[in-house]
Specification:
It is built from eight helices and six strands, in the order ααβαββααβαβαβα. The chain is of the alpha/beta class. It has one domain: 3-Layer(aba) Sandwich (Oxidized Rhodanese, domain 1), CATH 3.40.250. The strands form two sheets. It has a four-stranded parallel beta sheet with strand order 3-1-4-5, with helices on both faces. A two-stranded antiparallel ribbon has the order 2-6. α6 links the parallel β4 and β5. The protein is globular and about 35 Å long.
């Protein structure tokens, strides 16, 4: 009898471990490496969510094909909006729980906070770029948008 109970226990635990492994496989690592982030930026395969404040974004931002600015203080509430409300508010399609999402900020601290909040809301395929915009600009100064500079150039041209 003890042998039967032991075998059943082992089979149960083995099945639970396999199930836990499947759940873990669906999660992404917290940090996305530079080369993988470069691919995301160029391809648009994931939504890049910049969690900096709008005035920071106005200075410079990553030139990603699939990009939105959602300040950190709005991340939790924005991810709980309906798909229609999210798109109406932010101008892009709301990510589903199965979509890849990458958070970015200036240096990595706010994006990690946003990532933890998203993971808490079951966005298990979300990651953050730990180098932030500082790391991105250092490696890819050609793949940024500098709205402030562009607007100032346009304003100067208009003055003449």
């Amino acid at each position: 009898m003890r042998t039967i109970i032991f075998i059943i226990s082992v089979l149960f635990l083995h099945g639970k471990c396999e199930q836990d492994q499947t759940i873990q496989d669906e999660k992404r690592p917290f940090e996305i490496p530079l080369l993988e982030f470069e691919s995301v930026v160029k391809s648009g395969n994931a939504l890049v969510i910049d969690v900096r404040e709008p005035d920071e974004v106005y200075e410079v931002r990553v030139d990603a094909k699939n990009y939105v600015n959602v300040p950190l203080k709005q991340v939790g509430s924005s991810l709980q909006l309906s798909a229609g409300e999210f798109e109406k508010t932010y101008g892009v399609k709301k990510p589903s729980l199965d979509d890849d999402v990458v958070f970015i900020c200036r240096s990595g601290k706010r994006s990690l906070t946003a990532l933890k909040e998203a993971r808490g809301l079951a966005f298990e395929r979300s990651q953050h770029f730990v180098g932030g915009h500082l790391g991105w600009i250092a490696n890819h100064p050609d793949l940024v948008v500098r709205e402030k500079e562009e607007n100032e150039k346009t304003r100067r041209k208009d003055e003449f």
